């Protein structure tokens, strides 16, 4: 009896690898993902006194090819932005690892009310991270695709810089540091998000 | 430009961040739709716990005067809260885009890594948006 239980708990390296693979392909619940995202803030501060913020990279890219010699982009982007652009490269690698190598084969477990709502708006594909009805090269030529992909992207870039940060810079970094400015910006994020989701999106889709 | 050691450090940190964005499904257009409909706790749990963990960490760094790996003092530049217009107007524009596209800047790049090539279009559009802001900056209320 005692013997058999020891045998059951002893893993071979192959079993260990398959267990790890299984673990890494699972979606992570909020109470696992939240702390990891939050730890990015002290991690970057301790690595080199860096403040976490992704959208700043968009500015660095503009600064690297400052076509019209705009003063906002006249700064030493290599000195200020090299670490952040490296971090961004890592985000792409992380996307490859999490979305391809350790991809979860199951569809995302969404709230039933959201699924019903989106079905009414004409979304039928719930298999991946994004709906094929919107995120495909074929849709780009349609009015709906153009508005979502091009106008959506433009607003994200313009708004993030106007507000001085995005979800990482204001909602995570700024609120962690109890910055009033970030609280105002995050309230703005939700005003815009709620207006879009409840009033404008039904007109687009 | 950047030392090999720094490159590896920040690449690893970014990879971890990108990986958790995928595993937590924060990158999902569907999850953003769900969040703005208040249909699930998932996104609020992630953002809430992330802020709490960040807040405790920053307090510990300040309290114990923790230095960075280069031995320098850690200082966080405060954001100027007197510029209310830019935070409300800019923030609302960002929110409109976030809900419309269903992705913010971090997830856009994680999705690119996961092979959703069409996301290049919103990334280029976001660069155009950033550039336009830079060009119009003097004329905008802040």
Automatic annotation (TrEMBL), chain B:
NADP among keywords: no
Pfam families in UniProt: DUF6691
Keywords: Membrane, Transmembrane, Transmembrane helix
Transmembrane segments: 7-29, 41-61, 84-103, 109-136
InterPro entries registered for this protein in UniProt: DUF6691
Keyword Transmembrane: yes
Protein name: Sulphur transport domain-containing protein
């Amino acid at each position: 009896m005692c013997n058999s239980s020891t045998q059951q708990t002893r893993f071979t390296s192959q079993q260990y690898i398959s267990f790890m693979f299984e673990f890494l392909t699972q979606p992570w619940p909020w109470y696992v993902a939240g702390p990891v995202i939050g730890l990015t803030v002290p991690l970057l501060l301790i690595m080199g006194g860096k403040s976490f913020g992704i959208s700043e990279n968009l500015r660095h890219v503009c600064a690297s090819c400052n076509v019209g010699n705009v003063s906002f982009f006249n700064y030493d982007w290599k000195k200020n932005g090299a670490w952040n652009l490296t971090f961004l490269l890592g985000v792409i690698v992380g996307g490859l690892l999490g979305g391809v190598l350790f991809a979860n084969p199951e569809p995302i477990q969404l709230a039933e009310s959201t699924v019903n709502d989106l079905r009414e708006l004409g979304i039928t594909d719930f298999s991946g991270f994004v709906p094929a009805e919107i995120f495909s090269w074929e849709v780009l030529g349609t009015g709906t695709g153009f508005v979502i992909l091009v106008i959506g992207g433009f607003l994200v870039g313009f708004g993030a810089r106007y507000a001085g940060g995005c979800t990482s810079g204001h909602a995570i970094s700024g609120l962690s540091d109890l910055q009033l400015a970030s609280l105002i910006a995050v309230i703005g994020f939700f005003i815009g998000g709620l207006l879009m989701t409840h009033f404008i999106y039904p007109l687009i889709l | 430009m950047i030392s090999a050691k720094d490159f590896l450090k920040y690449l690893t940190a970014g990879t971890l961040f990108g990986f958790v964005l995928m595993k937590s499904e924060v990158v999902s257009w569907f999850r953003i739709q769900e969040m703005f409909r208040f249909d699930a706790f998932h996104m609020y749990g992630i953002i809430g716990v992330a802020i709490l963990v960040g807040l405790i960490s920053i307090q510990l760094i300040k309290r114990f005067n923790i230095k960075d790996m280069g031995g320098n003092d850690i200082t966080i530049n405060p954001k100027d809260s007197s510029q209310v217009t830019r935070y409300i107007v800019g923030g609302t524009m960002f929110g409109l885009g976030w809900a419309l596209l269903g992705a913010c800047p971090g997830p856009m790049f994680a999705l690119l890594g996961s092979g959703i090539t069409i996301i290049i279009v919103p990334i280029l559009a976001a660069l155009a948006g950033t550039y336009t802001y830079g060009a119009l900056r003097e004329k905008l209320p802040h």
